[in-house]
Amino acid sequence: MQPSGNTLSPAPRRLMTGAVFTVAALALSACGAAEPDAEQPAPSAEPTAESTLRVGVQLDSPGLAAGVDATSPSGLDVDLVTALTTELPGTAVEWVPISAEQSGQLLADDEIDLALVHGPVSNVGSRDGVTAVGPYLQTVPALLVPAEDADSLPGDGSWEPVADLEDLDGTALCVPAGADRSLLELDESGEPDILEQPSASECALALTSGRVQAVLSDRVQLAGLAVDPRFSGQVEVLEWDDLDESTPPAVTYQVLAGGQETVCQSMFGILSDPDRMASLLSNAATTETSESAAAELSDATSPC
User: Fold this and answer.
1) Torsion sign (Cα): 70, 277, 100, 66
2) Highest-confidence segment of 126-130, 229-233, 291-295
3) How many CA atoms lie within 13 A of 204 on its CB side?
């Protein structure tokens, strides 16, 4: 991909004031300016970032990108971007809360430089200036259901335990926006009553409030919700193998880039390095529920 000519967002002008002052002071000294008084130390510039990388992130995803606000999230997505900034010295990160559906358009409009997207992304290749750098996680679908001993959950108590996919017929099921709904094509006898919510976390809230009987999402996000303090002890994850004998479809997490070739190339280098990705995963809360997609990229040609 050829660079579009866009540049990373400059750091705020006020942060550069100290640096400009220091350069000016050095110039005066070289021209024979008077030495500063010994009791008055020369001003020093605070370290500043030369550029800002605007990263679209899906917040409220425990283990991936969680936090009370967008300024200080934590999780695997954050670790991945931190690894990227080591390849781009002098780069600060601005976290921009997004949804998966917004990511492509925000990149195309140059509102963000990079996006980490959980789940499927459609029509990426049709957008000018947007590159699918590669996958960083692969996982499978799963269900989040009330824990066996969570009999105190609100609701009318009419729900029955889910043992397989057929048990979803006629139940109330929450699905995050963008989830693969083809999994819900069960049979003609009946299908779930679907409640769509913007995120898996909001679906978990619907589950623990008694509005639905199960949540369909991917194993990584549901495992994070199962250990989240808001839901721990109230919910549990049902693996696909326990629900159906068929091979589950893969759920892939993608990194999308805008017009910055350097950013794209540096991120591809990380994603295609199995050892580096394994190291990032080893520090993540999602280790047991996911696998690196680096093996797929290790012999691939960079899309950048």
Assistant:
1) negative
2) 229-233
3) 27
| Alpha helices per DSSP H over 109-197 | none
Q: What's the chain's Rg over C-alpha atoms? A: 24
Torsion 201-204-209-210 (CA) sign: positive
Quote the pLDDT of residue 68: 58
**pTM reported for the whole predicted model:** 0.72
Burial of 126 (0-12, 13-18, 19+ CB in 10 A): exposed
Coil, helix or strand at residue 199: coil
Pairing state between β 114-117 and 251-257: antiparallel
Q: What are phi and psi of 136, to 5 degrees?
A: -120, -15
Burial class of residue 291, CB neighbours in 10 A (0-12, 13-18, 19+): middle
pLDDT(26) > 80: no
Q: Quick one: 44 exposed, middle or buried, by C-beta within 10 A (0-12, 13-18, 19+)?
A: exposed
Contact assessment for residue 9 and residue 52, using Cβ atoms and an 8 Å cutoff = yes
Structure tokens at 227: 């250990």
Please tell me the predicted confidence (pLDDT) of residue 166: 74
Calculate the average pLDDT of the chain. 75
What distance in Å separates the CA atoms of residue 32 and residue 12, rounded to the nearest whole number? 32
**For 79, phi and psi rounded to 5 degrees?**
-60, -40
Q: Is the pLDDT of residue 47 over 60?
A: no
Name the pLDDT band for 63 (thresholds 50, 70, 90).
confident
One-character DSSP codes across 88-113: STTEEEEEEE--HHHHHHHHHTTS-S
